[in-house]
Design a protein that fits this description.
Number of helices: 3
Number of domains: 1
Largest sheet: 10 strands, antiparallel
Strand content: 35-45%
Radius of gyration: 19 Å
Number of strands: 10
Distance between the termini: 41 Å
Oligomer: single chain
Length: about 210
């Protein structure tokens, strides 16, 4: 999975456009993060956006020319025509853990459930992840394959139009979904969890000293 994660301390909607090309957007009240699938390098260059993310088909592959690409764009919401989009998730999400390629399909992982578990110091809170969903950027084959056992709130909230498919069909990301939803993963919208408290304090002290010398 890519290491890029995107969390905001606000409501985020997951929208999808099916035509003319499949596009998934994470939308707040003011901005949108848009994900488009590009099957080849040539398409990625031709449809270049603000950023691009390259995914290898396998860790041992050295030929990236045929690997799937994802174009990512960050834009103001008023510049995005959402009339052709529909809601992909009935409830707001907390953010995304990034993207992953499985069997040449690109999936975006969004955090659907999280709860506050700690406050390290004023202004620094920690959230525990207890629910995630994976949505495919390049195919509708895996749409509506839901996992009730992973989501205690699953059921009527999905509505009558989101009928479940054959239960014998397992989502390609099912095992990864179980892992990320087991309560062992955390994030913060206030600070970098990978930095120790002492390191963060040293950084603050350095910046404060630098500002006083300006």
């Amino acid at each position: 999975m890519s290491q890029a994660a995107f969390f905001l301390n606000m409501s985020i909607r997951v929208l999808i456009r099916d035509y003319p090309s499949r596009v998934i957007a994470l939308v707040t009240a003011s901005h949108a993060l848009i994900f488009r699938h590009s099957p080849s390098t040539a398409d990625a260059i031709q449809n270049s956006s603000l950023a691009s993310i390259q995914f290898a088909q396998s860790r041992t592959s050295i030929d990236f020319q045929g690997a799937p690409r994802c174009m990512v764009e960050f834009t103001a919401l008023n510049s995005l025509d959402t009339s052709d989009y529909r809601s992909l998730n009935p409830l707001p999400v907390h953010g995304t853990l990034g993207l992953i390629t499985i069997n040449n399909d690109v999936f975006i992982c969004v955090v659907t459930g999280a709860s506050k578990v700690a406050s390290v110091r004023p202004g620094e809170t920690v959230e525990r992840i207890f629910g995630v969903e994976f949505y495919c950027l390049n195919s509708s084959e895996h749409d509506n394959i839901l996992s009730d056992d992973l989501n205690p709130h699953a059921g009527d909230i999905y509505g009558p139009n989101l009928s479940r498919r054959d239960p014998t069909i397992e989502h390609p990301c099912a095992e990864l979904q179980k892992l990320l939803s087991n309560g062992s993963f955390y994030y913060s919208t206030d600070f970098d969890l990978t930095n120790r408290l002492q390191d963060r304090q040293d950084t603050i002290s350095f910046l404060a000293e630098a500002l006083t010398n300006i």
